Amino acid sequence: MSTESVRLLIVDDHPLFRDALHSAVQVAYPKVETVEAKSIREALYALERDGTFDLCLLDLNMPDVQGFDGLLRLRTGHPSLPIVVVSGHEEPRIISEVLSFGAAGFIPKSVRKADLANAIRSVMDGEVHVPESYRPQPPDAEREDRARLVQRLATLTPQQLRVLQMLRQGLLNKQIAYELQVGETTVKAHVSEILRKLNVYSRTQAVIEVSKLDNSEFFRDQSPF
Length: 225
What we know:
The protein has about 220 residues and is α/β, with parallel strands linked by helices. The chain has helices at about 15-30, 40-50, 70-75, 90-100, 115-125, 140-155, 160-170, 175-180, 185-200, 205-210, 215-220, and strands spanning about 5-10, 35, 55-60, 85, 105-110. The protein has eleven helices and five strands. A five-stranded parallel β-sheet has the order 2-1-3-4-5, with helices on both faces. Helix 1 (about 15-30) links the parallel strand 1 (about 5-10) and strand 2. The longest helix is centred in the middle third of the chain and has 15 residues, at about 140-155. The termini are far apart.
C-alpha cells in the first residue's frame, strides 16, 4: 500500500463501476483523488479545466463515441497522459488495437478488485499492463491484417480515395468539398462509404489504419491522384 498521493480520471458511463474503480484504486493508493466523467466530452472538459492527472482509466464503450474513437481523442489531445483501458471486451484483437493506439495498458472488467489494484500500481510504476492470458498477434497475422486492409482500399472508388487522402491531410469536410468542387453532403456520403468499406468506426480510425501502410501499399492497384 502506497502513501503516495495520486490523481486519477475515471471515464465510464456506469456509476457503479466508477465506484468500483475508485474503491480498487484506494487499495493501492489510499490518498487517491479521483475525478469522474460519464462521457468523452466530460473527460475532455475535465482535462482542459485541470489536466494534472497521473492516470486515466477509460471504458471503451462510451455513449458519445464509437469503437476506439474515445481513446484516440484523448490520446491525440493529451499525449502525455497515461491511459489504461478497462473494458469488458477482452478479445486479443481488441487488446492489440488498444496498445497500438498508445494505451498504457488493458485491464479486463472481470478481474478481481485486488488484481485491478495491482494492475493500476504496475502502470503507475511505468509498466504496460496486459492480462496474463494475452498473446500478441504473430507477425503472420499482422501481415494478413495489412493485406486485408489493402484489399479493402481496392474497393474504394477514385473519388473516395481522393477523400481519404484529404482526410489523412487533416482537411475538414468543407475544405474537401472546396477542393473537389462538390457539396458537403457529397463529401459526407463519401466518408460514410469509406468507413463502411474499411470496416472502421470513425474518420480518425480510418486515418490511423491507412497510416500503417506505406504509399506503395496505399496506392496498390489504384490510379494515383
